[in-house]
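>> received
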Amino acid sequence: MADYDQYKMQNPVTQYSKDGFSKQQQNPPGLQTDMTPVPDCGEKSYRGSARLEGRKALVTGANSDIGRAAAIAFAREGADVALAYHPSEHKDAEQVAELVKEAGRKVVLLTGDLRDESVNVKVVEDALNQLGGLDILALVAGKQTAVEDIADLTTE
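>> returned
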């Protein structure tokens, strides 16, 4: 990854290593820090361009995977970020919070189990109040549930 340049045209088929990835299993929700190798969600490879200067973002599932990458990118693009995450994933969320701070942005840590609808309401209210507004919602936290029709998917 040392030679990675996000602005240089690269072949995505050969850009990243495919070797050395053993099968891994964690009980949900799981920690990114326990993966081997630990994936790069932009920590080493993404640099911002101030495209979101002055914006305020709420990212759920901000401790790992897509949520982590979104939080890092938003901060490096100039946004203040509220990180919502499951209490068991605090270790990963603290890492993301440090990266947001390193980008010179304000970070708010909001922990709770988003399977509880009232927690979702509180997370949004707390993010809104602590950041002084919200411009971006990246609602990434979730658990896959199969239904025949999306109308059958309840808030539960």
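>> Residues 51-141 form a domain with the Rossmann fold fold (CATH 3.40.50.720).
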